[in-house]
Amino acid sequence: MRWEVIFEPAHLAMYGQGVLTTLSLLLSCLAIGGVLAVVFALALTHGPAPLRWLVGAYTYVIRGTPLLIQMYMIYYGLAQLEWIQARWDDIWPWTMFKDAFFCALLAFALNTAGYTAEMLAGSIRETAPGEIEAAQAMGMGRWQALRRIVLPSAMRRTLPAYSNEVVMMLHGTSLASAVPAMLDVTAAASRIYSDYYLPFEAYIFAAGIYLTITFTLVGLFKLGERHFLAHLAPRTH
């Protein structure tokens, strides 16, 4: 074991840059995917039949194909089309496809949106009839009740399942290392492995970083569940 190589300042700085890239990818894809998931969930539960079928087909494809393939389809497929490359120097949004970070972010955001939309749609469908009846008794219309009662309640109840999705997306960001010019935590470990042939040290250190971030996220979600789902906890006498 040659751990002194891992703890050289230059290599620690490379891992630090990888952590920043990983967290940037994670937080950005969760923000974009979260907004898309709300829109898709509303389409699945309250949209017209053609829209429900279209969004349902999208979530089916997203959940039925590997994330790595989806990322390759965007970076090596969509971004390499001659029609896009002819416009990616001066026409937005095609200029974004020159950036490897954007291609990875787009793949991750579309992926998490598909999974989260189905979770949120399921929670909306399982809303207690009493909550809707109470909203109607207070004079709320359908969309007002959805915005003020149903959707916030569904989001709170989705929190435990969503925490698993966030952790899975954290681990999924390691696939960004398959895209050239992307320096995430896994890519940093791969560079040390290729330069010094230290697979155990490089990847064990990377695993420790992912484990630390994972436990931090789980702890934050536990605090959130205690706050937002306290009314669902069993009562003690």
TrEMBL record:
<dbReference type="InterPro" id="IPR043429">
    <property type="entry name" value="ArtM/GltK/GlnP/TcyL/YhdX-like"/>
</dbReference>
<keyword id="KW-0812">Transmembrane</keyword>
<dbReference type="Pfam" id="PF00528">
    <property type="entry name" value="BPD_transp_1"/>
</dbReference>
<keyword id="KW-0472">Membrane</keyword>
<dbReference type="InterPro" id="IPR035906">
    <property type="entry name" value="MetI-like_sf"/>
</dbReference>
<keyword id="KW-1133">Transmembrane helix</keyword>
<dbReference type="InterPro" id="IPR000515">
    <property type="entry name" value="MetI-like"/>
</dbReference>
<feature type="transmembrane region" description="Helical">
    <location>
        <begin position="20"/>
        <end position="45"/>
    </location>
</feature>
<feature type="transmembrane region" description="Helical">
    <location>
        <begin position="203"/>
        <end position="221"/>
    </location>
</feature>
<comment type="similarity">
    <text>Belongs to the binding-protein-dependent transport system permease family. HisMQ subfamily.</text>
</comment>
<dbReference type="GO" id="GO:0022857">
    <property type="term" value="F:transmembrane transporter activity"/>
</dbReference>
<keyword id="KW-1003">Cell membrane</keyword>
<keyword id="KW-0997">Cell inner membrane</keyword>
<dbReference type="InterPro" id="IPR010065">
    <property type="entry name" value="AA_ABC_transptr_permease_3TM"/>
</dbReference>
<keyword id="KW-0813">Transport</keyword>
<feature type="transmembrane region" description="Helical">
    <location>
        <begin position="57"/>
        <end position="79"/>
    </location>
</feature>
<protein>
    <submittedName>
        <fullName>ABC transporter permease subunit</fullName>
    </submittedName>
</protein>
<dbReference type="GO" id="GO:0043190">
    <property type="term" value="C:ATP-binding cassette (ABC) transporter complex"/>
</dbReference>
<dbReference type="GO" id="GO:0006865">
    <property type="term" value="P:amino acid transport"/>
</dbReference>
<feature type="domain" description="ABC transmembrane type-1">
    <location>
        <begin position="19"/>
        <end position="222"/>
    </location>
</feature>
